[in-house]
Amino acid sequence: MAAAAPTADFSNDTWWIWVIKAVAILVFLLVSVLMALWVERRGLGRMQTRPGPNVHGPLGLLQAVGDALKLVLKEDFTIKGADKFVYALAPFIASFCAFLVLAVIPFGPEVSIFGVVTPLQLTDTPVAVLYFLAVTALGVYGIVLGGWASNSTYPLLGSVRSAAQIISYELSMGLSLVSVILVSGSLSTSQIVSAQTQLWWAIALAPAFVVYLVSMVGEVNRLPFDLPEAEGELVAGHMVEYTSMKFAWFFLAEYINMFNVSAVATTLFLGGWRAPWPLSSIGDGVLNTGWWPVLWFIAKMWLVMFLMIWTRGTLLRFRYDQFMKLGWKILIPVALVWLVLVAVVQGVRQFTETDLSTMLLWIGGVFAVLMVVLLLWPAKKEEAEEPRTAHPDLIPPGGEFDAFAGGYPVPPLPGQTLPPSPRRTRRESAGVGGPQSTPKEGHDV
């Protein structure tokens, strides 16, 4: 089946209309990030029974401005051993890719801008969904290069974690979007919005929507999936060796990507700029015309944003093995099974007159029940490990202690001794580090 062409008509657009739209998207993202900082702090403050910012400006509204100025005015330095070109380029790659996503997102229908009738969308292509996946995948290069170019261990570990995370969760995210493409018959974002006139895909394709919501949190490195940073282990992950505006570009890219995935969720699953029912039926759909749809789009997008903020204030960080297990053993299989079911439904519809929405709702209900049963099914209890003894008399004499015997390094128990260190043996034989060695002349004690 050939992909349907975009429904948006850009034939009246001129170069200055493109400039206005591009600047509007840029300003919208920058203002939204400032608002997101305030909303997140105030929201988490209420969830954690504390006031949050309430001094700078009314209700603390100017706190985000103070944070931005603080980053700008901090000392900007470059690590001595870093690859200076790549070190400076990495933050710009991450932020530049983040700014590109909203170019294909429709904010509303056709309106008149200074007498020119044009869609509220910068551009659209028959492969707009693939464009979104490609740009988000390219953005991770900024994180990986930033960690590598810093010439430091912790940033490198954070960037490697991020690469593994993007690969894992982009697979499940892409599979969840394929089911939307199948039922919409197009990869064009404007066409997908048009296909949700009667029913949002978040309802008809509920399992895919849930997989996308979980995957998008992992995609933007937010709690409980912020393993590339994990301040308890890696301080700030790939951003450890960055400061001032270089750090601010990474910080900005993270929040813009939150808006990007929220906008994609709104467009592909929540009806895009269309008003929710029953508002959509008022006055023969008058609220779906003019500039009203921009309000509905922004409201839906902020609803998804608040879901990520709520998740941060509610859940604890996963262990890395739990995190990868969720991606590879749960999300990807669920997305694959659901995709096969949707493909079967689309094949059956070629020979029957059954309504698509009715079939998807029935299958989605059965699928959801099965997933709940599998999640609640009690796990097999592992055999209890024999407790280690700490009594020296019970330790077999002459037995060499193996710190890695149980799979994880453990310290010796009383009465046990570690095997001799090869490094210490070499140092003592060279006479430079043993207990009897003395500092050489000219060296500090």
UniProtKB/TrEMBL annotation:
Its main location: membrane. Keywords: Cell membrane, Membrane, NAD, Oxidoreductase, Quinone, Translocase, Transmembrane, Transmembrane helix, Ubiquinone. The keyword Ribonucleoprotein does not apply. GO terms for molecular function: NADH dehydrogenase activity; oxidoreductase activity, acting on NAD(P)H, quinone or similar compound as acceptor; quinone binding. It catalyses: a quinone + NADH + 5 H(+)(in) = a quinol + NAD(+) + 4 H(+)(out). It comes from the Bacteria. Residues 409-422 have a biased composition (Pro residues). Pfam families: NADHdh. GO terms for cellular component: plasma membrane. It is an enzyme of class 7 (translocase). InterPro entries: NADH_UbQ_OxRdtase_su1/FPO, NADH_UbQ_OxRdtase_su1_CS. Its EC number is 7.1.1.-. The chain crosses the membrane at residues 15-39, 85-108, 128-150, 171-193, 199-218, 247-270, 290-310, 330-348, 360-379. It is a multi-pass membrane protein. NDH-1 shuttles electrons from NADH, via FMN and iron-sulfur (Fe-S) centers, to quinones in the respiratory chain. The immediate electron acceptor for the enzyme in this species is believed to be ubiquinone. Couples the redox reaction to proton translocation (for every two electrons transferred, four hydrogen ions are translocated across the cytoplasmic membrane), and thus conserves the redox energy in a proton gradient. This subunit may bind ubiquinone. NDH-1 is composed of 14 different subunits. Subunits NuoA, H, J, K, L, M, N constitute the membrane sector of the complex. Belongs to the complex I subunit 1 family. HAMAP family: NDH1_NuoH. This is NADH-quinone oxidoreductase subunit H. It comes from Georgenia subflava.
